Sequence to fold (164 residues):
Amino acid sequence: MYVRNMSFKIKVNQKAPDFTLLDTDFKPKRLKDFLSQNVVLAFYPGAFTSVCAKEMCTFRDSLARLNTLKAQVIGISVNDPFTNKAFADANRLNFPLLNDYNREAVNSYGVALMDFAGLKGYTAAKRSVFIIDKQGIVRYVWISEDPGVEPDYEEIERVLGGIE
Fold:
């Protein structure tokens, strides 16, 4: 089951919360650093899990189309920079992966997944996608309660195609 534009913290037409997260090279990156184009923020529960690898590789394989739609994909997980770097290298991911190990972004975007995989006290990110336009306004929200469900990639492209 997934929910589109329901009663989560972040809603369509709201200003997206900025964040400062480290990339896989330990360089701080802010959302506003990427707003020269539309942004697809793809939160994923954990590196090296099968569904997360499939999702990130699908985004990798769609980058040519997404670039024509003037979109930048950014993956975000609670993994540390070392793990995300190995994950990016193993899957030849050619877009930024940001590390939310202190849960700043998952909390501000309302996508914290408590007790992930039955691990009491371990908070991961719900699989979710936010499309943010160049002005920093959220144009699309998709959040899954089931970490095994992937987003509708065609719908993401349709939404991006409708942003001026």
Remarks:
- The beta strands are 2-4, 20-23, 28-30, 38-43, 71-77, 97-99, 112-113, 124-125, 128-132, 138-144.
- The radius of gyration is 14 Å.
